[in-house]
């Protein structure tokens, strides 16, 4: 049992007074620093959000960058405050570093997807509404998150692509440019006039209002098949009109060639019968 008679009250009071004189200013200064630091961090976070919003950053990326900046600044503030009181921060920082390394190794795949998402949102190889081909999939980009990109295919299926592989491999953005070229192939008979066929196809293309006049349509011979002379028709159109022009051109080719009296041949072979009895 504690014997109070043996405690030197005056010594205890003196010790407490000395500690108060020694630590009270540090604690008060640390508290003031803490509140001022939190206020400054709040202003910095709002400033970062404002700048990113002016740069038209993605909402998800903007919120994440602001959150990360706030967390890092608060961690630095906390370490500064406890060091002002007199707490040794060397071991504390080492513990934080080890914990961060362990978390990074555990979330390696997720962090890879996250890093890919940040790169996609910053450099914008594609945006929401673009039609892309990537990772063996193709479709319209419906949403871009920091971890995944969401596509809707032409047959209305939803495809979720992880951003890590997506950012590091080839991406084909079909609708990035404002105009596209439509390539069509057609074969004509060897008896037909190539000049007449080229003129008929060019006139047919120019009659379509969705086909651009500049660059102008092109028709050329691309090969000689077993049964036909192969021609290629190339026309330009607005990107949003691509499929309409593609199907309209395919439908109009035969009537245009028929009107010019140019036959589209079908595969045929000459068979020679040898009479061995003679």
UniProtKB/TrEMBL annotation:
<keyword id="KW-0472">Membrane</keyword>
<feature type="domain" description="Mechanosensitive ion channel transmembrane helices 2/3">
    <location>
        <begin position="75"/>
        <end position="108"/>
    </location>
</feature>
<dbReference type="Pfam" id="PF05552">
    <property type="entry name" value="MS_channel_1st_1"/>
</dbReference>
<dbReference type="InterPro" id="IPR008910">
    <property type="entry name" value="MSC_TM_helix"/>
</dbReference>
<protein>
    <recommendedName>
        <fullName>Small-conductance mechanosensitive channel</fullName>
    </recommendedName>
</protein>
<keyword id="KW-0997">Cell inner membrane</keyword>
<keyword id="KW-0813">Transport</keyword>
<feature type="transmembrane region" description="Helical">
    <location>
        <begin position="64"/>
        <end position="86"/>
    </location>
</feature>
<feature type="domain" description="Mechanosensitive ion channel MscS C-terminal">
    <location>
        <begin position="182"/>
        <end position="264"/>
    </location>
</feature>
<dbReference type="InterPro" id="IPR023408">
    <property type="entry name" value="MscS_beta-dom_sf"/>
</dbReference>
<feature type="domain" description="Mechanosensitive ion channel MscS">
    <location>
        <begin position="110"/>
        <end position="176"/>
    </location>
</feature>
<dbReference type="InterPro" id="IPR011014">
    <property type="entry name" value="MscS_channel_TM-2"/>
</dbReference>
<dbReference type="Pfam" id="PF21082">
    <property type="entry name" value="MS_channel_3rd"/>
</dbReference>
<keyword id="KW-0406">Ion transport</keyword>
<feature type="transmembrane region" description="Helical">
    <location>
        <begin position="92"/>
        <end position="123"/>
    </location>
</feature>
<keyword id="KW-0407">Ion channel</keyword>
<dbReference type="GO" id="GO:0005886">
    <property type="term" value="C:plasma membrane"/>
</dbReference>
<dbReference type="InterPro" id="IPR049142">
    <property type="entry name" value="MS_channel_1st"/>
</dbReference>
<dbReference type="Pfam" id="PF21088">
    <property type="entry name" value="MS_channel_1st"/>
</dbReference>
<dbReference type="InterPro" id="IPR049278">
    <property type="entry name" value="MS_channel_C"/>
</dbReference>
<dbReference type="InterPro" id="IPR006685">
    <property type="entry name" value="MscS_channel_2nd"/>
</dbReference>
<dbReference type="GO" id="GO:0008381">
    <property type="term" value="F:mechanosensitive monoatomic ion channel activity"/>
</dbReference>
<dbReference type="Pfam" id="PF00924">
    <property type="entry name" value="MS_channel_2nd"/>
</dbReference>
<dbReference type="InterPro" id="IPR045275">
    <property type="entry name" value="MscS_archaea/bacteria_type"/>
</dbReference>
<keyword id="KW-1133">Transmembrane helix</keyword>
<feature type="transmembrane region" description="Helical">
    <location>
        <begin position="20"/>
        <end position="44"/>
    </location>
</feature>
<dbReference type="InterPro" id="IPR011066">
    <property type="entry name" value="MscS_channel_C_sf"/>
</dbReference>
<dbReference type="InterPro" id="IPR010920">
    <property type="entry name" value="LSM_dom_sf"/>
</dbReference>
<comment type="subunit">
    <text>Homoheptamer.</text>
</comment>
<comment type="similarity">
    <text>Belongs to the MscS (TC 1.A.23) family.</text>
</comment>
<keyword id="KW-0812">Transmembrane</keyword>
<comment type="function">
    <text>Mechanosensitive channel that participates in the regulation of osmotic pressure changes within the cell, opening in response to stretch forces in the membrane lipid bilayer, without the need for other proteins. Contributes to normal resistance to hypoosmotic shock. Forms an ion channel of 1.0 nanosiemens conductance with a slight preference for anions.</text>
</comment>
<keyword id="KW-1003">Cell membrane</keyword>
């Amino acid at each position: 049992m504690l014997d109070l008679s043996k405690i030197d009250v005056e010594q205890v009071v003196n010790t407490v007074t000395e500690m108060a004189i020694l630590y009270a200013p540090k604690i008060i200064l640390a508290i003031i620093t803490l509140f001022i630091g939190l206020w400054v961090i709040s202003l910095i976070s709002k400033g970062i959000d404002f700048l990113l919003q002016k740069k038209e950053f993605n909402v998800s990326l903007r919120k994440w960058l602001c959150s990360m900046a706030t967390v890092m600044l608060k961690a630095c503030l906390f370490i500064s405050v406890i060091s002002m009181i007199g707490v040794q921060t060397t071991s504390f920082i080492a513990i934080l570093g080890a914990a961060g390394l362990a978390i990074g190794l555990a979330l390696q795949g997720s962090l890879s997807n996250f890093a890919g998402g940040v790169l996609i949102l910053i450099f914008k190889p594609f945006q929401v509404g673009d039609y892309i081909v990537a990772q063996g999939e193709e479709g319209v980009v419906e949403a871009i998150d920091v971890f995944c990109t969401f596509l809707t295919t032409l047959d209305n299926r939803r495809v979720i692509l992880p951003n890590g592989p997506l950012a590091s491999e080839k991406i084909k953005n079909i609708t990035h440019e404002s105009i596209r070229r439509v390539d069509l192939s057609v074969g004509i008979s060897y008896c037909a006039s190539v000049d007449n066929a080229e003129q008929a196809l060019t006139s047919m293309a120019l009659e379509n209002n969705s086909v651009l006049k500049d660059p102008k349509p092109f028709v050329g011979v691309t090969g000689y098949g077993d049964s036909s002379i192969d021609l290629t028709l190339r026309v330009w159109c607005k990107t949003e009109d691509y499929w309409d022009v593609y199907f309209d051109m395919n439908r109009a080719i035969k009537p245009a060639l028929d009107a010019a009296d140019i036959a589209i041949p079908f595969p045929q072979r000459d068979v020679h019968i040898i009479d061995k009895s003679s």
